[in-house]
Fold:
Amino acid sequence: MDAFETFLPFVGTDFNVLILVALGFAVGVLAGFFGMGGGWVITPALYSFGFPMQLAIGTGLGSITAQGTLATMKHRKMGNVDYVLGGTVGASMVLGVEGGKRVVNLLVSMGLAGTVVGWIYVPLLLALAAYIARDCLLEARRRAAATGSGGFPKDAGGRRNGRAGKGKLFAIGPSIALSSCGVEVSVGLLVGLGLLVGFLAGLLGTGGGFALVPAFVYLIGTPTLVAVGTSLLCVLISGAYGAFAYGRQGSVEIVAVLWMLAGAVVGTQLGAAATRYVRGYGIRLLYAVMLLLASSGLVMKQLGVVPNAEGESRLAPLVILGGAALMCVVILARMVGALVRGRRGTRGG
Amino acid sequence: MPDPAQWLFAADLGRTEAGAGFAGFLLKAYRSHPTLYALASVIGLLAAGAFLGWLTEVALALLGYETQNADHVE
Structure:
């Protein structure tokens, strides 16, 4: 497999290109399918493959920047981006990212970056899995019960939207009007949200879309599609700054990012196309299971389960990448199945 | 006729040199101008993302496929 090895100058080792392309592809399928970034997979996966934590974070941010460009452009064309909201939160996230990066640098100087950030990821991924599973089960229960019996009206994205059109929201200090949901929101709230999510992004090398989308929908009341589009703009702004800040200290492995991007471009399109054919709660529950696998993979990495000669866990990367690969296979297999059934139906009819 | 094994060896050598050359170029650029290097990297990543995305959109359109907006699956 030497033919597929490439030299990564900042990590300082050879690395298999196929793994990078596969990782990018898997992240692309998940991002395209779920409308959620995938940065939280890249950093733990690269870390479990032996990247130093600082480089895993920087490379994750670089990857998010490249992949986020296409998604943001697509959403902009469809009018799903609230620039006032995205600009305010995105600018605040830049400050947060800088704060997160400084904490990482401090941890690196103490020799604790891998341990601390790795362990922070574990409860975060578990919480995300719990959130998705809960959201999915609640939706299933709501659908099972008679729909439309009171409650909040649903927006175009299918989510209940309790704040929309309710005038001022958290009217403390100066506020700005958001045309996407017809409310005035306190600037302080948006800045606070941006600082918090940006800090997490800088610390963990994620985009922060997983926190921004629910915050925009449930806290502010933006329609789901606008929340997704606007969060992508925020992620792009903060990701670009993060890639710059980490790049200045030589912590972005551009070669790895480019290989991952090659896989991600194809994966994103396939994932987005699959949303037409694959539906159901099971797939979202499977996503939660994948997060659990990623979390357990990190625990294995931290504890050095089934160690190799260097004491690194051999099982951890397999569990993380295997979980993502399994998820992609299920999505793509169901898409192909639906396409085949559709063709048979067309011939039969 | 040259031995195919020699071709493979030559191709592999070329690939290795090209890879090492690019890696060396990146390291040299970073060491001499880290801020400029980081800025160029970000601009390059934004451009690469946009260009590759546009390319796949065009390719899919030529194949007759139309991708839709990625949204939550209900």
